[in-house]
Design brief:
single chain; alpha/beta; 2 domains
């Protein structure tokens, strides 16, 4: 099925939860939501085969999908919520902030003033700051050095994968490890990473120049709608209890399915049975998450 089902190691996390811990990605018979958005959960630039089921993170997303005419939808919870259910947090010391600047993607570059954003971060964050860049910005020496010269620690969780190649089962695991080292999670736009950080126990913040994608269109209402509908999640200081409740609802952490039911929806076999329906993939370099295994 669609290659986006394997972004960020989502199919690997769900396979492990279902007792099918296999290094090769299993084919999901449907479209799996791969990021938080304010529409039907699916990427607006993807084409979909009519009648193929959509596997969505939350009841909120399902209701939005219905309002947009999507009918064959199932709420399954986000892979992130399943990962946290399998790897509960233990006692540890958290300090500082992990900051996720809004990023571009393979089809569009981000346009904005990184120097201005750095000034805003310095004005708000009292402790050490880790800046996590998307792989494109991380590979750009110019962008990366903006934050390194500011004295920030700069990391990248890895490459999300694409077109059934360069898949990275360890992406979410690295993200979880980073988040659990920090007291706060912040970004200049409300995004998946902020919700992930809230669920992982971080205090959230959304502030600063939101930047823009080159040629960005305000799909489903864009940033103005996000700021109106999720106003409680914007600002340098946010009510943690309110944020937690919203993250649970948006990530479907209260809607996780038993392994047997998830296997049935995805048409996956029972543990121990033959697995005939794998998808061909190349993996990431074990020592550098933004390079392929062949590049090591």
């Amino acid at each position: 099925m669609h290659h986006a089902n394997h972004y960020y190691g989502h199919s690997h996390v769900l396979a492990r939860y279902c007792g099918l811990d296999d290094p090769d990605p299993l084919r999901i018979h449907g479209y799996l939501q791969h990021g938080w958005n304010i529409g039907d959960g699916m990427a607006p630039d993807h084409e979909f085969v009519p009648g193929v089921p959509l596997f969505l993170w939350s009841e909120r997303t399902r209701r939005r999908a219905w309002s947009l005419g999507r009918r064959q939808t199932y709420v399954v919870g986000s892979p992130w919520a399943y990962l946290l259910a399998m790897e509960p947090d233990g006692p540890q010391r958290r300090e500082g902030t992990i900051w996720y600047p809004f990023h571009g993607w393979e089809g569009q570059r981000v346009v904005g003033d990184h120097g201005r954003l750095i000034d805003e971060i310095r004005a708000v964050e009292p402790g050490p700051v880790t800046v996590c860049l998307y792989w494109q910005e991380y590979r750009s020496r110019r962008v990366r050095q903006h934050y390194e010269r500011a004295g920030f620690r700069v990391v990248c969780h890895g490459y999300r994968g694409g077109r059934w190649s360069d898949l990275d089962p360890g992406f979410l695991h690295r993200q979880l490890a980073e988040l659990r080292q920090h007291r706060r999670v912040a970004s200049n736009r409300l995004c998946s990473a902020v919700f992930y950080g809230i669920l992982a126990g971080c205090e959230p913040a959304v502030y600063g120049d939101p930047m823009q994608l080159a040629g960005e269109a305000p799909v489903w209402g864009g940033q103005p709608r996000i700021r109106r509908q999720w106003a409680q999640l914007h600002g340098p200081q946010i009510d943690v209890a309110v944020a937690r409740a919203l993250a649970v609802a948006e990530l479907g952490a209260d809607r996780l399915l038993p392994p047997a039911e998830l296997r049935r929806l995805f048409r996956w076999p029972d543990p121990g049975a033959a697995v005939p329906d794998r998808e061909t993939a190349t993996t990431r370099c074990p020592t550098d998450p933004v390079r392929s295994e062949a590049e090591c």
